[in-house]
Write a structure and sequence with these properties.
6 helices, six-stranded mixed sheet, 18% strand, alpha/beta
Length: 200
């Protein structure tokens, strides 16, 4: 059973700590959700090389052989979700949407629409909206994009490690399976990203 140290690092023999403080951007006040990604790189080292220059990144990375790396503190915010989030009520239960506001936004051109939907959603608290950088942990799985709609399949070892890691995060942050999302469900990303990831 893993533990969390005072610096927000997960202590367990299955996790190698490889923290990149350049991808941490301020305090993460609370973890309410998990977002599962794929790296669009063929190796863990390629991702680490990108992390060295700072900017975007996620809290954990799982290599194709199943090795788990913690790359950022779970007490710190990472830019992993994206700039614009989708409308959860539109995707899951349209009856929960503010129909007047939604009709106005859906009448806009696409670029204006996604910006307006993002601003509208961010006024809500989770779980009424999708997770954002300031309330979620990101997990990257090493895997290349094959084309506009497909990524490499997640390996069995990656899925085994993902299931273990997610179960530990459930325990540490009182989360459930309803708090785990694939990146394309939350923001405007390739629909194939993490499509073969399993954690239930």
């Amino acid at each position: 059973m893993s533990s969390l140290d005072k610096d927000g690092m997960l202590i367990d023999a299955q996790v190698i700590q490889m923290r990149f403080t350049g991808i941490e951007h301020g305090e993460l006040a609370g973890v309410h959700a998990i977002v599962v990604h794929q790296t669009d790189s063929s190796t863990a080292q390629n991702t680490f090389n990108g992390y060295k220059s700072g900017g975007n990144g996620a809290h954990f990375l799982i290599d194709k052989n199943g090795q788990i790396y913690q790359t950022a503190s779970v007490h710190r915010r990472c830019y992993h979700v994206g700039k614009l989030i989708r409308s959860k009520c539109l995707e899951i239960n349209k009856s929960n949407c503010d129909s007047v506001a939604m009709a106005s936004m859906l009448a806009m051109g696409w670029r204006q629409q996604i910006k307006a939907l993002d601003a509208h959603e961010r006024q809500k608290d989770y779980p009424e909206r999708y997770p954002i950088n300031s309330d979620s942990v990101g997990i990257e799985l090493v895997g290349k994009s094959l084309d506009a709609t497909r990524f490499e399949a997640v390996t069995a070892q990656q899925n085994n490690s993902l299931q273990w890691l997610v179960s530990e995060l459930y325990r540490h942050f009182s989360l459930t399976t309803s708090d785990v999302y694939r990146h394309p469900d939350v923001s405007y990303k390739s629909p194939g990203e993490a499509s073969t990831a399993t954690w239930k």
